[in-house]
Amino acid sequence: MNRKQKITKSVVLVSGGAGFIGSNLCEVLLNQDNKVICLDDFSTGYRENINEFLRHSNFTLIEGDIRDYETCAKAVKNVDFVLHQAALGSVPRSIKDPMTTTEVNVSGFVNMLHASQEAKVKRFVYASSSSVYGDSSDLPKLEAKIGKPLSPYAVSKLSNEIYAKNFSELYGIETIGLRYFNVYGQRQNPNGPYAALIPNFILKLYKHEQPVINGDGSYSRDFTYVDNVMQANQLAALTPRDQIVGEKQYLAEVFNIACGGSTTVNEILQRLYKECIKYDSDIESIKPIYGKVRKGDVPHSQADVMKAEKLLGFDPKYDIDIGIEKACKWYWGRLMNK
Ligand SMILES: NC(=O)c1ccc[n+]([C@@H]2O[C@H](COP(=O)([O-])OP(=O)(O)OC[C@H]3O[C@@H](n4cnc5c(N)ncnc54)[C@H](O)[C@@H]3O)[C@@H](O)[C@H]2O)c1
């Protein structure tokens, strides 16, 4: 099938555009001749992630909070596609502060969705999460079968999917939720208590500190390099509605976005050692520390990506070997230049 795979000559709003995934989306879209509007409040995103785009005449920054409806309405005006990434990530953060996670991830989401349908955007693509599978022990994860969510973060992402479906049925807005599985790559924040595992481990090795593994390292994840997520967002925005849902009255689908692999935490650390030793051979002597399992963490997570492959033409080209190599190279270059 001949598919359009790249968004070009469009106006695209990236909420959370100063964050990890959002800033990568801004970069790809600017390079493909789009007008990009980035809406971000810099709560977990960084100016340095978008500094180089600020000079670009096709880039507009709206500094604002998605909890404010007027801000969302202003941001989506005359926009073709919304790629909604803004949210407070992290399971532990949501357990510590469920109120703020819910305000941003649920109320903020509904603001963006409602503003988008009022502005009649062509499609609303949003970041959901593998956390919606909760306590389901089925592997690999299939979109149709979820379990009980295990954290306020997971509840917030599940509620996004329910709202999106409800709005599609009620108002006709086309929505696609992408259930990302442990995304990693350039510009992911390695610092702080809520840092994701891969950048956190790379930073520890760089500083010659011991990486801390929660549990015995046997938990496994479907680690997904960020460029696969770039492809998924564009396919989700562009794939014609009838190719996804046929004659169905409305479009409100969710897709697993991952590589379909399974790597344990111990294995990922070994891969990181192998890559990082290329830059600093002293790293070999640093041993990890094994700590307690974190509340709300699921033991194993692996996606079935058949639905996205079949209906969107998703083809995750960056496997764990290429992804880890690219990520280590990027972090090393950046840390060395600080
Ligand atoms: N990184 C992953 O592995 C992963 C996995 C599953 C789902 N997700 C989802 O993908 C999306 C992007 O995640 P990320 O890893 O890039 O996180 P990130 O924290 O780097 O980016 C989120 C961005 O949203 C912005 N933001 C937060 N609250 C806001 C508010 N109230 N108003 C405006 N902007 C706000 C932040 O400042 C930040 O720039 C999130 O929705 C996240 O839940 C990420």
UniProtKB/TrEMBL annotation:
Q: Which domain of life is it from?
A: Bacteria
Record Gene3D superfamilies: NAD(P)-binding Rossmann-like Domain, UDP-galactose 4-epimerase, domain 1
Q: Which Pfam families match?
A: Epimerase
Domain (NAD-dependent epimerase/dehydratase): residue spans on this chain: 12-247
Matching entries from SUPFAM superfamilies are given as: NAD(P)-binding Rossmann-fold domains
**Mind telling me which InterPro entries this protein's record contains?**
Epimerase_deHydtase, Lipid_A_modif_metabolic_enz, NAD(P)-bd_dom_sf
Name assigned to this protein: SDR family NAD(P)-dependent oxidoreductase
